[in-house]
Amino acid sequence: MTSVPFTTLFQQQRQCLLRTVQRMVGSRSTAEDLLQDTYLRVARALAQGPVEHLEPFLYQTARNLARDHLRGCKRRERTLVDGIADEVLLNIAQPASSPERATHAERTLRRLSHSLAGLTARQQRIFVLNRLHDCSYQEIAGQLQVSPSTVQKELKLISALCACIAQRLEA
């Protein structure tokens, strides 16, 4: 395939490609940059030989570049914090909390801990896996050998309990 049909295909698909990549990365300007990279990568691949299914190849290349970009962003975020010594991070000044706010937070935490201790072992495990380990319903269901619907219902019950505690403390 020559570069003329590729260029034509790219121009025809450009807006759809842009929307796809922009949805993935959350930024129009970044999506535009990634589309330029996509064009160059596909053009280089075509220079090495024909591509049988050019349009899917074009979309897959754009999605792969977007994923690579997102992975790079996450890596940079981790590196920014990971590269700093713990003692430096621990010595960063936090805004001082008023004694009233500290007391309120402590009371909330005590009541929440007390209420969560009253949950069944399975409910506690679901809460910890979902809220602290960010596991999905399906992942939790697989670990506990229950249905995702059961996990969802248990979390709804636990959330209602937490909301009730928060309401009582606000009153």
Topology, pairings included?
Elements: H1 3-25, H2 28-48, H3 54-82, H4 86-90, H5 99-117, H6 121-132, H7 137-144, H8 148-170
Helix pairs in contact: 1-2, 1-3, 2-3, 5-8, 6-8, 7-8
Distance between the termini: 71 Å
**Total beta strand runs:** 0
According to CATH, what is the class of the largest domain? Mainly Alpha
The percent of residues in helical segments reads over 70%
Q: How many individual helices?
A: 8
Low-confidence stretches: none
Q: Tell me, rounded to a whole number, the average pLDDT.
A: 83
The CATH architecture of the largest domain can be named as Orthogonal Bundle
Tell me the number of structural domains: 2
- How does the major sheet shape up? none
Q: Determine the structural class based on helices, strands and strand pairing.
A: mainly alpha
Shape summary? elongated
Radius of gyration: 25 Å
Instruction: Give the percentage of residues in beta strands.
Output: under 5%
Question: Would you list the SSEs in sequence order as H and E?
Answer: HHHHHHHH
What is the CATH topology of the largest domain? Rna Polymerase Sigma Factor, Chain: A
